[in-house]
Amino acid sequence: MTLLGFVDDVIELRWRYKLIIPCIATLPLAQAYWSQHQSTTIVFPSYSHPSTLIQALWEQFWALRRTISPFSAKSSPSSPKSAESPTALRSISVVQRRGFEVDGWYYIYIVMLCIFCTNSINIYAGINGLEVGQSIVIACSLLFINIVDILIGGDADYVQNHVFSATMVLPFIAASLALFDFNCYPARVFVGDTFTYSAGVTFAAVGIFGHFSKSLLLFFIPQLVNFILSLPQLFKLIPCPRHRLPRVDPDTQKLKPSVISSNPTSPYYNRINLTLINVVLSLFGPLGEHTTTRVLLGVQFFFSVVAVVLRYKFGSVFPVQVVNGVNA
């Protein structure tokens, strides 16, 4: 993937190749997963009555609210189905969990996950410090859940998976912190696609071999929002220029949203390019490049906290780990 990023920096590959080539490049990763006889079973809770799940989610919501606001009511109101279902928090631990063996479909998911992680960071970039900064936030978040799950413990395989995942992400954090110092505004080093592709496939490998490949997507919420915003332009439903970077106001030296067309006769005249960076700039007005990076990294950090809360607060409803290597 790093080589693919370097090639893209040199000859600027078309998007069709950025989707096809990673499919081939991720085959060794899928092969390594298969050769270790890792599980391809996905586990979901099996409830005897839908009201049990409703009650469980209701109780978890109020537990989360009490955690955030200690001055809230000491007891949560009863849900509409509380009379029909057992006490949620106690019943969840004994609810039967149903496993679904997806076999080869999981390897397709691995390939798709690698493609998403690499390209989502690649298109959510363009200002000094953003590529490396978002990668550091995600990497530190993944290291945090590795440490927490190691401390919580479990069977030997489960702990070993998180130890292996942590050993992969620690060197990445160390190298990225040094790189971030040179990549901050005003940048002395530009990372290009070489770094974004390398970072994306690192996160995918950490999630896959750490057995939290589904939870991994929670830490990519800003990248997912940016990807969804970009879909009309990526699929050519709306004109898409080669670069959709914000423009610099020559008078104020601040960043402003870039537009699709500056031609008054165009139907897309003065319409902003569909990226999260441009949306933030349109909402908060022109910002300096350093300030823009801080705002976007703040958004990334906020959603990382949300991801951690969702993983551990609702883990009893949608289990994030099951013994014997079942995927979380």
Automatic annotation (TrEMBL):
The coenzyme or cofactor needed here is: Mg(2+)
Q: What keywords appear on the UniProt entry?
A: Endoplasmic reticulum, Glycosyltransferase, Magnesium, Membrane, Metal-binding, Transferase, Transmembrane, Transmembrane helix
**Residue spans crossing the bilayer:** 106-127, 133-152, 164-183, 189-209, 216-235
Claim: Endoplasmic reticulum is one of the keywords in the record = yes
Record-level Gene Ontology MF annotations: glycosyltransferase activity; metal ion binding; UDP-N-acetylglucosamine-dolichyl-phosphate N-acetylglucosaminephosphotransferase activity
Which compartment or compartments is the protein found in? Endoplasmic reticulum membrane
The record's listing under Pfam families reads: Glycos_transf_4
Q: Which reaction does it catalyse?
A: a di-trans,poly-cis-dolichyl phosphate + UDP-N-acetyl-alpha-D-glucosamine = an N-acetyl-alpha-D-glucosaminyl-diphospho-di-trans,poly-cis-dolichol + UMP
| One CC-aspect GO term | endoplasmic reticulum membrane
Q: Tell me its EC number(s), please.
A: 2.7.8.15
Bilayer topology reads:
Multi-pass membrane protein
Main subcellular localisation: endoplasmic reticulum
Q: In which pathway does it act?
A: Protein modification; protein glycosylation
Q: Which GO terms describe its biological process?
A: dolichol-linked oligosaccharide biosynthetic process
Free-text function comment from the UniProt entry? UDP-N-acetylglucosamine--dolichyl-phosphate N-acetylglucosaminephosphotransferase that operates in the biosynthetic pathway of dolichol-linked oligosaccharides, the glycan precursors employed in protein asparagine (N)-glycosylation. The assembly of dolichol-linked oligosaccharides begins on the cytosolic side of the endoplasmic reticulum membrane and finishes in its lumen. The sequential addition of sugars to dolichol pyrophosphate produces dolichol-linked oligosaccharides containing fourteen sugars, including two GlcNAcs, nine mannoses and three glucoses.
**Which protein family is it in?**
Belongs to the glycosyltransferase 4 family.
Task: Write the protein's name.
Answer: UDP-N-acetylglucosamine--dolichyl-phosphate N-acetylglucosaminephosphotransferase
Species, as recorded = Blastocystis hominis
